[in-house]
Amino acid sequence: MEKSFYLKTFGCQMNVADSQRITHSFIEKGYKPAKTAKKANLVIIVSCMVRESAENRIYGLINNLQKQGIKKIILTGCLAGCLLNDRLPKLYKNLIRSKTKGVKIVAVDDLASFNIPPVRTNDTAWVPISNGCNNFCSYCIVPFARNKEISRPIRDIIEEVKQSLSDGFKNITLLGQNVNSYGSDLVKNKKQKNITMIKSMGKRRIPSLFPYLLNKVAKIDGVDRLDFMSSNPWDFSNNLIKVIADNKNITKTLHLPIQSGDDNILKLMNRNYTGKEYLKLINKIRKAIPEVEFTTDIIVGFPGESKKQFENTINLCKKIGFRKAYISRYSPRYGTAASKFKDDVSPKEKKRRWLELENLINH
């Protein structure tokens, strides 16, 4: 019987990049891609769980597949990463297991390491430069799902970009959970006695190698458009701004998550900046890159967010003028610091705030 697999991907561009590597891996093992789950011997789910709704979609899909008599299912991606993480509460992992019975759980690194070439499926080459995150924003499950940040060697990234160009992909997007902190672990691992720390938004940090990497990729002959995501405000250095300004092929639409415009909510979120510092960064970038546009992420209805605090977000967004915002209604994620807070903003009020921001920015 011919071996075949069906791959279903949820979530972010990093999951898409992982899926492209998983596809290559299974083709090398003798499997052929199937157009539907019913026509496959094996179903692979690359999962997302950044929000409760995303997690519930995974459970719903597994239930539907099993009702159809599909027995061979592999679950990978962020939900699998959480299940394999020792730092998450046993109670939560038992909940995941109860909803994924009969499913094989496999870490994404075991299916799609950086060394596996991708099978690209769109016009853009998604090139991962790191995996994981060290920031532990209080609402975010990613550090548990993806573990600590690990940077990919620069030479490997350059090789993949050049191969992508040879394959006809002129648009390159560099990916990471916190793309502009790239290389901080590489600098630290050199065990230098005197690392020159940099000061960003009031805190001292290990310098990032991302400006160097971005400039190096931009200079490769044939790169028509260079993008990157996602970046954090506190790692957006002067060097990075200069590199973007100096290279015409680097996108001038920057995704810079704000999450909230209220300082107390930002503090509860463990975001390392104030609204004033974020606005100052926006203005600094605009001064250096007059044509720049910004997109962002915002969470509404975070625990304890009053109507006045939400208005602070509205007012800051009006000052900035985002081109687009990806707006989420807060949902607790087990194991995160915020899951211990009282989720005291009603679903109705969360929807109202979501609509107000949606109408302000995205219409």
Description:
The mean pLDDT is 92. Helix 1 links the parallel strand 1 (4-9) and strand 2 (32-33). Helix 9 packs parallel to helix 10. The protein has a 5-stranded parallel β-sheet with strand order 2-1-3-4-5, sandwiched between helices. Strands 6-9-12 form a 3-stranded parallel β-sheet, sandwiched between helices. The protein has helices at 13-28, 52-67, 78-83, 90-99, 108-111, 142-146, 154-166, 184-189, 210-218, 238-246, 263-268, 275-288, 307-320, 347-361, and strands at 4-9, 32-33, 42-47, 73-77, 104-105, 124-128, 130-131, 150-151, 171-175, 198-200, 203-205, 225-229, 253-255, 293-300, 324-329. The protein folds into 2 domains: 4-111, 3-Layer(aba) Sandwich (Rossmann fold), CATH 3.40.50; 124-361, pyruvate-formate lyase- activating enzyme, CATH 3.80.30. With 363 residues, it is α/β, with parallel strands linked by helices. 39% of the residues lie in helices and 17% in strands.
Helix and strand layout, with pairings?
Blueprint: E1 4-9, H1 13-28, E2 32-33, E3 42-47, H2 52-67, E4 73-77, H3 78-83, H4 90-99, E5 104-105, H5 108-111, E6 124-128, E7 130-131, H6 142-146, E8 150-151, H7 154-166, E9 171-175, H8 184-189, E10 198-200, E11 203-205, H9 210-218, E12 225-229, H10 238-246, E13 253-255, H11 263-268, H12 275-288, E14 293-300, H13 307-320, E15 324-329, H14 347-361
Parallel strand pairs: 1-2, 1-3, 3-4, 4-5, 6-9, 9-12, 13-14, 14-15
Antiparallel strand pairs: 7-8, 10-11
